[in-house]
Amino acid sequence: MLYGSGHRVEKVISHPNYDSKTKNNDVALMKLQTPLTFNDRVKPVCLPNPGMMLEAQQPCWISGWGATYEKGKTSDVLNAAMVHLIEHSLCNSKYVYNNLITQAMICAGYLQGNIDSCQGDSGGPLVTLKNEVWWLIGDTSWGSGCAKANRPGVYGNMTVFTDWIYRQMRANS
């Protein structure tokens, strides 16, 4: 498989407990055939420690080539936006996602809508800057439409998956 600017993917490793109905454990890894070369446009991001504390309203950034509006076409340029983490209990309230959010998920965005990930952004990063370090805290998973009020983006919670990721890295090195 060939992705992006010519990086060949040797193997895709999906989480064995992924549930396509609930989107629980929505995370996968790609092993590249050759290592990436870091430069001004390609930089590493740190994996969080298991259970790393995330705070409601913490600023985060999303990026992707997905649609810029619901049912739109994917973008030719990489887009990015700032969103805020939303408290788990608020995201799980009956006014938002009504108990669909598991511990393996986090919500980010704005309850008033307007800014969100959209179709084509799935798998993309949710990162935050903490103590001058960029952390990958989520991967774009699902939502209800794009940028709708009371329907923020839902992301895989990387603090839950860190141990699984490291085990896969060791097993597939």
TrEMBL record:
Keyword line: Disulfide bond, Hydrolase, Protease, Serine protease
Keyword presence, GTP-binding: no
Keyword Protease: yes
InterPro entries (alphabetical): Peptidase_S1_PA, Peptidase_S1_PA_chymotrypsin, Peptidase_S1A, Trypsin_dom, TRYPSIN_SER
GO molecular function terms noted in the UniProt entry: serine-type endopeptidase activity
Origin superkingdom: Eukaryota
Residue ranges occupied by any Peptidase S1 domain in the UniProt entry: 8-170
PROSITE patterns: TRYPSIN_DOM, TRYPSIN_SER
GO BP annotations listed: proteolysis
One Pfam family in the UniProt entry: Trypsin
Official protein name in the record: Peptidase S1 domain-containing protein
Protein's organism: Marmota monax (Woodchuck)
